[in-house]
């Protein structure tokens, strides 16, 4: 697990003692490593050497302003899916000229904000969306730069909830309608047709799905070039997986090289939209064990983090490695035991680990849930009126608070008390 090591029996993440972080910032706490984020981003950049490529970080994976600012500083652009993400990018100094706006359901307000910002590209997913975008752009005397999001009908072989490139999924335009969409786009006054793209799913650990999609992409690129004469942008999507438990995905560098070798259009800017593979392994969720209880079947470790803080286990049966802050919690004398790590939320689905061999935690122990830098905090909610966790970035060898723990006043701040 990148970033983790035991020093004198005490778990460290990116050089910082996990127990000390928990004592200083309290738990539940998300901790990110600037160094690890940077390393992953740079692996993408190495893979892109010698080609026209723009890496657009998928903001949905982790939208903290400090994370966005860090990536913007390294040269990344952004893949956004809402007006909220656009707003965050603007606040974090992300250049609009590197922003691509994806998503099946853009509202007028969101489209107008993006037009105003003069973003690089709108990734359009339907004929109706294209018409609407054209009308709104034309109204303000603009032509919106568009990439048609195609559905390549490729099986990403990932969890069905995060597979997006099949006919059965709501995403993209059927690739059989490609030519017709190109013709239609050219009749619209507010559209500057600039390319096309695809995205087949997330947490792909095998390149074969990516290769299949790229081969289809290559075919479409030739058709686009035939009709349009030039192909400014080809968006190869995101989706590269990471190691949660034994998976062996390629490094970003290898993956990018492989895809670029298939998409051999040197004049075209190839976009990649990685989220998870940049931030996923660079984050951990720290939690404190509140109580332990045992029945005939197993042990329940009840901690102060819950499904509202990290929903991936409940939603996708996701696996996150669990590391005790004290190394001696696992030893020959103290073997792993069958158990669940659960939170305080009143739902049976509120577990962070179920039926797993876990360290025999004791009350007040700190545990780290690894590989939670992507789709962790961003999917947190206030269910059970639980304030969302704080976030810390380890930067320049020091932990820096990058989001305060939500307060009780913050919980109710948008409510109107009709008394
Ligand atoms: N581009 C598009 C159009 C996407 O829909 C997504 C992810 C990405 C890029 C970034 O994919 P990544 O590189 O992060 O795999 N909440 C789920 C993941 C949902 C992904 C949705 N789309 C999870 O926790 O596993």
UniProtKB/TrEMBL annotation:
Q: Where does pyridoxal 5'-phosphate bind?
A: 239, 273-276, 375
Cross-referenced Gene3D superfamilies: Alanine racemase (3.20.20.10), Lyase, Ornithine Decarboxylase, Chain A, domain 1 (2.40.37.10)
GO BP annotations of the record are: lysine biosynthetic process via diaminopimelate
Report the top EC class in one word: lyase
SUPFAM superfamilies in the record: Alanine racemase C-terminal domain-like, PLP-binding barrel
Q: Where does substrate bind?
A: 276, 312, 316, 347, 375
Which residues are annotated as active site?
346
Q: Name one GO molecular function term.
A: diaminopimelate decarboxylase activity
Per its record, the protein catalyses: meso-2,6-diaminopimelate + H(+) = L-lysine + CO2
Q: Which cofactor does it need?
A: pyridoxal 5'-phosphate
CDD domains linked: PLPDE_III_DapDC (cd06828)
From the UniProt record, give the pathway where this protein acts: Amino-acid biosynthesis; L-lysine biosynthesis via DAP pathway; L-lysine from DL-2,6-diaminopimelate: step 1/1
The free-text function statement in the UniProt record for this protein reads:
Specifically catalyzes the decarboxylation of meso-diaminopimelate (meso-DAP) to L-lysine.
The family annotation for this protein states: Belongs to the Orn/Lys/Arg decarboxylase class-II family. LysA subfamily.
Q: What HAMAP family does the annotation carry?
A: LysA
PANTHER family in UniProt? DIAMINOPIMELATE DECARBOXYLASE (PTHR43727), GROUP IV DECARBOXYLASE (PTHR43727:SF2)
Q: What name goes with this protein?
A: Diaminopimelate decarboxylase
Q: Which organism is it from?
A: Leptonema illini DSM 21528
Q: Which gene encodes it?
A: lysA
């Amino acid at each position: 697990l990148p970033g983790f090591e035991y020093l004198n029996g005490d778990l460290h993440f990116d050089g910082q003692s996990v127990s000390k972080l928990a004592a200083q910032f309290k738990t539940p706490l998300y901790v990110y490593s600037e160094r690890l984020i940077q390393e992953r981003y740079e692996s993408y950049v190495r893979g892109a050497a010698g080609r026209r490529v723009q890496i657009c970080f998928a903001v949905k994976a982790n939208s903290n302003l400090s994370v966005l600012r860090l990536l913007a500083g390294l040269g990344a652009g952004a893949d956004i899916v809402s007006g909220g993400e656009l707003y965050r990018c603007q606040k974090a100094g992300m250049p609009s000229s590197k922003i691509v706006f994806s998503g099946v359901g853009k509202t007028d307000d969101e489209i107008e904000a993006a037009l105003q910002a003069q973003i690089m590209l709108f990734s359009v997913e339907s004929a109706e969306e294209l018409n609407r975008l054209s009308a709104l752009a034309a109204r303000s005397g603009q032509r919106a730069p568009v990439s048609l999001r195609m559905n390549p009908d490729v099986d990403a072989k990932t969890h069905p909830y995060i597979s997006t490139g099949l006919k059965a999924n709501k995403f993209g335009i059927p690739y059989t309608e490609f030519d017709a969409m190109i013709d239609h786009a050219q009749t619209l006054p507010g559209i500057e047709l600039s390319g096309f793209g695809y995205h087949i799913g997330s947490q792909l650990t095998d390149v074969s799905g990516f290769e299949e999609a790229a081969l289809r992409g290559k075919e479409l690129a030739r058709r686009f070039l035939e009709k349009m004469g030039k192909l400014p942008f080809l968006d190869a999507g995101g989706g590269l997986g990471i190691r949660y438990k034994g998976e062996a995905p390629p490094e970003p560098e290898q993956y990018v090289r492989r895809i670029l070798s298939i998409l051999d259009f040197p004049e075209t800017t190839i976009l990649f939209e990685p989220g998870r593979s940049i931030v996923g392994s660079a984050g951990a969720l720290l939690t404190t064990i509140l109580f332990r209880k045992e029945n005939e079947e197993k042990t329940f470790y009840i901690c102060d983090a819950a499904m509202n803080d990290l929903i991936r286990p409940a939603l996708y049966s996701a696996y996150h490695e669990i590391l005790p802050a004290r190394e001696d919690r696992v030893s020959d004398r103290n073997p792993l035991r069958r158990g669940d790590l659960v939170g305080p939320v009143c739902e049976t689905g509120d577990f962070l680990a179920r039926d797993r061999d876990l360290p025999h935690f004791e009350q007040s122990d700190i545990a780290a849930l690894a590989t939670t830098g992507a789709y962790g905090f961003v999917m947190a909610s206030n269910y059970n009126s639980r304030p969302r966790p704080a976030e810390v970035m380890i930067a320049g060898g020091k932990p820096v608070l990058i989001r305060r723990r939500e307060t009780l006043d913050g919980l109710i701040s948008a409510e109107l008390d009709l008394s």
